[in-house]
């Protein structure tokens, strides 16, 4: 039996068909994040909006995604994994199409919130579904999930740049069409998964945060997501590139993120442990943001730094997601919802804060501020090592 289990783990491609259907849908779901990046300056220009107003496209999306994480488990435990995933996709289809049909920035911001609701139902359930249904253990499942995220984030900007060069509305309609494909793929191929015997409560994720390890990982993600979305939502305004150019830059960033999340993170984790590896990646990311803050006027430095940042973010994303699945004695879906609730709030603050700081002070300040938040994230991990030590023992 041990020999058989080992051979399965060594062949991560041998997964049930349902895993690849969810994998495909997850790719398309996360394309929605990167698709918007190349068109941020175009939306600001054509709708006479300030960068901080345009950044609310990220803020409303992340805020609603985070808050709705509290109900994702409630919905999933009552209607089942399959219909929770399908409901989330339906929300994304409708609200992305509505955003593309809008003529005011306030309307797009509002519809992005609805899109975030669908995204929360989908991504929290997709992670627990992949972990629960895949072969080869939690670590292998999370690598698959992170690979889907990386592919979605990397391909999204390229498609966003191509569609955005035709019209800023194109990427919104593109997401809607792609999610229709994902909807029917899941509807036809995903089997019925039994509902959990115990019904989840809205308070379950909040209660899960009483575990110090999970709370620390949530706070870490909250802080470093401010830096993450400073890069995502502010850097397009200082690179001085058109939609095509921005698409290619974020394609490079996303490819670095995807490659490191799948191939590099497991090796670094096995050699150095989860906590040390996370601290190192957060320091490297902070230094990258600091370099962007110092040499903001150099488009070349900013472009290279954005791409290089993908290396550190991809590695850290896999490390922290793996740790979240193992750090607290609660259901994986509950742990994911609790962690995501906290981290997406950081993702809501970061985009608006970065652009507001640039409008109030200078173009350098957002990146330097982002670097400081990421360093604080590193300290939260480093100083809370005693609450995470068992994750290191599991990873070894």
TrEMBL record:
Instruction: Provide the topology term for how it sits in the membrane.
Output: Multi-pass membrane protein
- Chain segments annotated as transmembrane: 17-36, 56-76, 83-102, 114-135, 142-160, 172-192, 213-234, 246-265, 277-295, 301-325, 337-354, 366-384
Q: What is its main location?
A: membrane
Major facilitator superfamily (MFS) profile domain location is 18-388
Q: Please state where this protein is localized.
A: Cell membrane
Keywords, sorted A to Z: Membrane, Transmembrane, Transmembrane helix, Transport
Instruction: Quote the Pfam families the UniProt record gives.
Output: MFS_1
Name-wise, this protein is MFS transporter
Species the sequence originates in: Fictibacillus terranigra
């Amino acid at each position: 039996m041990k020999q058989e289990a080992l051979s399965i783990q060594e062949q991560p491609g041998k997964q049930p068909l349902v895993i690849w259907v969810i994998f495909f849908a997850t790719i398309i779901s996360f394309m929605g994040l990167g698709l918007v990046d190349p068109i941020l300056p175009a939306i600001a220009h054509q709708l006479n909006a300030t960068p901080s107003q345009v950044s609310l496209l990220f803020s409303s999306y992340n805020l609603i995604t985070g808050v709705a994480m509290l109900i994702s488990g409630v919905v999933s435990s009552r209607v089942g994994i399959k219909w929770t995933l399908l409901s989330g996709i339906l929300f994304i289809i409708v609200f992305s199409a509505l955003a593309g049909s809008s003529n005011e920035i306030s309307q797009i911001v509002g519809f992005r919130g609805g899109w975030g609701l669908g995204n929360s139902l989908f991504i929290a359930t997709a992670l627990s579904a992949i972990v629960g249904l895949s072969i080869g253990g939690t670590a292998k499942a999370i690598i698959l999930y992170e690979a889907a995220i990386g592919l979605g984030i990397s391909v999204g900007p390229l498609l966003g740049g191509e569609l955005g060069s035709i019209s800023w509305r194109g990427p919104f309609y593109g997401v809607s069409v792609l999610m229709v494909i994902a909807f029917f793929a899941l509807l036809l191929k995903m089997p019925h998964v039994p509902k959990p015997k115990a019904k989840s409560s809205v308070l379950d994720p909040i209660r899960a945060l009483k575990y110090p390890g999970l709370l620390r990982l949530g706070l870490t993600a909250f802080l470093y997501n401010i830096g993450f979305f400073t890069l995502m939502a502010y850097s397009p305004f200082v690179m001085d590139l058109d939609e095509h150019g921005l698409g290619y830059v974020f394609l490079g960033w996303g490819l670095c993120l995807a490659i490191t999340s799948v191939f590099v993170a497991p090796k670094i984790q096995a050699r150095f442990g989860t906590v040390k590896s996370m601290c190192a990646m957060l320091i490297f990311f902070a230094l990258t943001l600091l370099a962007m803050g110092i040499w903001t006027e150099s488009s070349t430095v900013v472009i290279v730094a954005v791409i290089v940042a993908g290396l550190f973010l991809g590695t850290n994303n896999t490390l922290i997601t793996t740790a979240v699945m193992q750090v607290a004695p609660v259901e994986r879906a509950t742990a994911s919802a609790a962690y995501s609730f906290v981290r997406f709030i950081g993702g809501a603050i970061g985009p608006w804060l970065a652009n507001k700081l640039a409008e109030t002070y200078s173009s350098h300040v957002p990146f330097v501020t982002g670097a400081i938040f990421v360093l604080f994230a590193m300290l939260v991990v480093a100083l809370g090592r005693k609450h995470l030590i068992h994750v290191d023992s599991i990873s070894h």
